[in-house]
Each structure stands twice: as structure tokens, then as C-alpha cells.
């Protein structure tokens, strides 16, 4: 069991200066939460459109491969069954990739994934559902193993929930965060 001591932060004398965003465009001053989005954006100012649509009579070009793929899906393949099951003698088609993935499971009826946690008997055929289930177990286990201990005024309050500790500090000790 991990124990986290919760105490008020030290008093700061210097005023805090706001952090300078590192993903801010120097040309149009737009800000981006992620570096990857910033880099893609910079292509619109500095890059060439290297990705061209190959459909007949379509002259569209794009800065990124993913933008070209989205264009093809939404403009040229809209409503078409472009995802095909390659299992022998099947050939069933789908409009969405996730529908194809869920379909493929039917070809392997013995491929069942059992939850690895001892007290759980859940079984799954769809990999994404299995992983989501196991992740919930891990999250619950982590939350149960972390304890927050109040160290203000010899208080004995403990909890495994961070939000509960914040509420306790505010209501019992009148601590403003």
C-alpha cells in the first residue's frame, strides 16, 4: 500500500509567471495542445502538398497522408463497402473497419480471452472489449492501493480517493486550494 501525505503547498513569495506555450505558431499565433498537431499545422505555412488524390478527375492535394486518406474515405468511398474480410470463402464487406474487426472474431469461435484476475470469470471474443475490461481492474486496484493521509492539525483522516481528500481539506480544515 502506497501512502501519500497531503499537506498544503509552501507559500510562494514571487508571483508566478505564466508558462510560454511551446506549441504556438509564430506565423498566425495559433496554439496547439500537442506537439504533433503543431507540426501538422506548420505544414500549412511551410510545407508542400505532396499527397495527391489518384481518383480520376480529382485534383485535390494534401499536406499529410492521413488527410488524403480521410478525403478518399469521405468523398470517394462514402457509403461503399471498402473493408473486405479476407478469410477464405467469406468476402463479406463492411463500411467501417471496426465492423470488419468484430466480424473476423466469428471465424475463430475458440478464440476466447479470459480475464486474468483470479476472482473474475469474464470471457471475451472482442480484443478491445477484453482490454477495456482488464484496464478497469488495473484502475480499481491502483485506486485501492493508494492512500491519502491528511497531515493537518493532527488529523487522522485517510482515504483512497483523491477527490475525497480535497473535499475533506476544504470542509474540515477550511483549506483553499
TrEMBL record:
Keywords: Metal-binding, Nucleus, Transcription, Transcription regulation, Zinc, Zinc-finger
Keyword Transcription regulation: yes
One GO process term, biological-process aspect: regulation of transcription by RNA polymerase II
Source organism (scientific name): Rotaria magnacalcarata
GO cellular component, one term: nucleus
SUPFAM superfamilies registered for this protein in UniProt: beta-beta-alpha zinc fingers
Domain C2H2-type: 23-50, 51-76, 83-107, 113-142
Pfam families, alphabetized: zf-C2H2 (PF00096)
Protein name per Swiss-Prot or TrEMBL: C2H2-type domain-containing protein
Subcellular localization: Nucleus
Keyword Metal-binding: yes
Single Gene Ontology MF annotation: zinc ion binding
